[in-house]
Amino acid sequence: MPHTINDFNKRYTKQNIFYQSLQQKLINFGLHLTVFLIPLFNNAQQNPQFSQYLQNPYVINPAMTGVEDYAELTAAYRNQWTGFDGAPRTATFSFNSSLHLLQGRLQRRGGESHQGVGAFLYTDNTGPINQNGFYGSYAYHLKISRDWFLSVGAFAGVNQFSYDASEAVLIQNPNDILVNSFSDLNFDMSLGLYVYSNYLFAGVAANQLFDNEIPYDIENGVLTNDGRLNRNFNFLVGSRIDLNQNFEIVPSILVKTVVGAPIQWDINGKLVYQDKLWGGLAYRNQDALIGFFGMKVLQNFLVSYSYDWSLTEFSGQQSGTHEVILSYRFDFGNQKCACPQYSM
Predict the structure, then answer these.
(1) Gap between the Cα atoms of 50 and 78, Å rounded
(2) Dihedral of the CA atoms 41, 43, 48, 53 (nearest 10)?
């Protein structure tokens, strides 16, 4: 993040103008562009983006560590803008659980205050730009009433940001000596708050708290230095509504923001049948319409898939976004956390 908001706004405007110029040249001349794509210009996507955030909520807010009444192992993969060279490819692998479950301690069926621990790693590749990270997490869930819990959590770990100049194809100044490979490793941290019951949930998380510098920047289309992994925030709110004995509906909204960049929001509606099948639609403002579905293949194994239809002018240069999430839930019998289980 620049030292002042005005500096950031100037840089953000220049970056978008530069990207639009590169995209137009790509269309006009049929060149393959694998350098500094949208995630570096749209600062709201410096963190990995997922459409099925309710299916893998742990990775967006550390306060959700150990929130469910099972331990969960999850793998997710997102292939964004299929068919466009250098487009983002993101993968995460995570595990989180209540300490009560890991220690074999039985809880009352109504739940009680408890702790959660977890860890996740991710890789996010965009042409020559790569981000990798590993984080551990801890959360404390305080029972504040018969039906409500308040959780406070943190991620702490390392983030590696690297640029491979050999993977870049520059349209202007292809031999620019300023374009060199580099790799930068930083300590990183996120904080989150989360309040929930069996029928409502809401949370807020602050990510990349240290606003770490990285050795790149863009000025008038030239790679320089003193860039930043910008501090950013997300806010989630939703509900789980019983329609009848077989069906439930889970509406939710996720808002993401970073200083100097447009606010991004997703509105999501999911229909669940007997906790075994689910599907729905989502809309991401000025970006995409999303369809998704999933099922329990076995008692504890879940598979879900989503497809993003792009609604931007960029849609003609790619064939959509695919996302797959695989989860295994370790059931510990009568041990309960009185959690909303919205991740179904």
Answers:
(1) 7
(2) -130
pLDDT above 60 (res 288) = yes
Location of structure tokens 């950031």: 8
* Residue 18 burial (CB count, 10 A): 18
| Residue 157 burial by Cβ neighbours in a 10 Å radius (0-12, 13-18, 19+) | middle
Roughly how many angstroms between the first and final C-alpha of the chain, as a whole number? 36
pTM of the model: 0.79
What is the CATH classification number for the domain harbouring 259? 2.40.160.40
**Cα separation, 228 vs 224, whole angstroms:** 12
Task: Tell me which residue range forms the domain holding 149.
Answer: 5-330
Q: Is the pLDDT of residue 181 over 90?
A: no
As a whole number of angstroms, the distance between CA 97 and CA 82 comes to 34
Number of structural domains in the chain:
1
The answer to whether residue 222 sits within a structural domain is yes
Q: Classify residue 219 as exposed, middle or buried by CB count within 10 Å of its CB (0-12, 13-18, 19+).
A: middle
pLDDT for 259 equals 76
Helices assigned H by DSSP within the chain: 5-29, 38-41, 99-102
What are the tens digits of pLDDT across the range 229-280? 788 999 999 999 999 999 999 999 999 998 778 899 999 999 999 989 999 9
Residues 6+ apart with CB under 8 A from 175: none
